[in-house]
Give the backbone structure.
Amino acid sequence: MRSAVRDEAVVSESDDLLTTGEVAKILNSSRQHVVDLCNSGELPYTTVGKHRRVRRRDVEMLRNRSLRMSRDQRRSLWLNTAVAGRLVADPSGVLNRARANLDTLQAAHPRGQAAYWLEEWAKLLDGPTERVLEVLTSPTPWAREMRQNSPFSGVLDEDERVQVLTAFRGHDKQGERTRA
């Protein structure tokens, strides 16, 4: 069995490390259940002294991994895929707009969950464009959470937005008939 213990040197200071008690609150479970998840390898952790610490990102991925995407999340994925197309066509223009939007959003949300996700966007926007494209187009739970606090408002003009939403509605209705 592969060990879920992560080497302390691998965890950077920018990772948001949580105690098992904090993780238990997020998962609405007991602290012992969190310890069991760590010991079974389902939840990666590192140790600080004798105490387990878990990255918030890993907790969110565990919490959301079995959840199917909602209609709103699928619609968001379609819109952000269109944004990704614009990003490929004009990387500097789209990223500059996102950074300006991010500054406004961070000023409006200095604390709380939104502030956490906006800080994640700040790190992402300073990295490789390919990673931004991954988040815009990925169905993973972490990417879904990121898109809920997206700094890409205004990248698509109203006509493009309407076109994407119309295509999504048509596709989504076809999917409902296929699933039924």
